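Revision sheet: structure tokens.
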Amino acid sequence: MKLADVLILSLALALIIIGVHQTMTVGIGFSYTIFMFAVALLFWFQYRKTKRAEEQQNEPPQGKKKNKR
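Predicted:
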């Protein structure tokens, strides 16, 4: 995982925790936006992960180089 992926996933987790706290204190109506941002970040993370897997699949295989002596 790259640094950007770790940051996106961490921010999504933090927003979920904040959303749960807001839900328990003031209600779901006030925390709905926070949950939607968290879901959007999770979708973005999944998109980046899928895109990277497709790029790796489309690359030609790297064979071992033979040493000529």
